[in-house]
Design the sequence.
């Protein structure tokens, strides 16, 4: 049983799904005049989580061939055969995704459902099927899942997106490339083996580090702007602290564009996002 649970967590990328869910709740928390019931907030979080999990599962199902070529992913259930390939899994994935979209439309509104659909569509179709094996800018569009999750959270309150969550959505769009490019640098050999054209492989570590820094400077600067649109000191502390760490690690990566510093930058990006989202939620629901 523990092995099955571990495989489910792996296939549905539940840790990533939890982060995407936080994006949706943060978008809600940063929107003025929240008028949702506890039940509606639960549905928002659940549908965003379910949509992300469905997209993650499809990603693993579709990419099982290249996953088999990379040490980091060669033990995934669809690669090892612990989960059998066939009609059952695509049916489950599609059913869960449709359940998320339908529930959002009925219990919240059609705009939330649209953003949830777009998050899954960009990750499944644009990123996984179309761009990942063809273009080094693949993750630029793959990262839109977090962006649309923020918009879904804000749209649950008002279809007209307020400035603060709109800024956060842009920050999420800018955050994903440097986050993933640092990981792609650290495990570059994996992507070379799988013939996936990630940016560090195409342009080199040093150039990728500089491009990542440009993204990071812009996203950190933008992440501070919501204090002018209703967010308070709690949010500012999270945004400033996480942003400073991310910038520091990016600067170190430019000086030392190697795998060791790339992995440190990757973990710094996770810390920055966690602080940003958690402090946004605390600020929005406490102040």
Sequence:
């Amino acid at each position: 049983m523990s092995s099955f649970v571990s495989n489910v967590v792996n296939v549905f990328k539940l840790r990533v799904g939890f982060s995407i869910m936080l994006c949706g709740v943060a978008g809600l928390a940063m929107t003025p005049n929240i008028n949702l019931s506890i039940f509606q907030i639960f549905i928002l979080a659940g549908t965003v989580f379910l949509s992300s999990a469905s997209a993650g599962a499809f990603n693993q199902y579709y990419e099982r061939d290249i996953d088999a070529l990379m040490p980091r992913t060669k033990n995934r259930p669809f690669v090892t055969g612990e989960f059998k390939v066939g009609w059952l899994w695509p049916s489950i994935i599609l059913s869960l995704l449709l359940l998320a979209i339908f529930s959002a439309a009925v219990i919240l509104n059609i705009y939330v459902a649209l953003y949830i659909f777009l998050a899954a569509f960009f990750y499944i179709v644009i990123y996984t099927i179309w761009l990942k094996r063809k273009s080094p800018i693949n993750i630029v569009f793959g990262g839109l899942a977090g962006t649309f999750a923020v918009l879904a959270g804000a749209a649950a309150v008002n279809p007209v997106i307020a400035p603060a969550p709109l800024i956060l959505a842009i920050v999420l769009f800018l955050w994903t490339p440097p986050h993933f490019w640092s990981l792609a640098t650290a495990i570059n050999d994996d992507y070379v083996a799988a013939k996936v054209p990630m940016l560090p492989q195409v342009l080199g570590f040093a150039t990728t580090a500089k491009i990542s820094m440009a993204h990071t400077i812009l996203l950190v600067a933008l992440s501070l702007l919501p204090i002018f649109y209703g967010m308070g000191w709690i949010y500012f502390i999270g945004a400033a602290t996480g942003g400073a760490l991310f910038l520091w690690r990016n600067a170190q990566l430019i000086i030392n564009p190697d795998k060791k510093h790339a992995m440190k930058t990757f973990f710094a990006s996770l810390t920055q996002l966690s602080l940003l989202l958690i402090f946004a939620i605390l600020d929005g629901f406490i102040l």
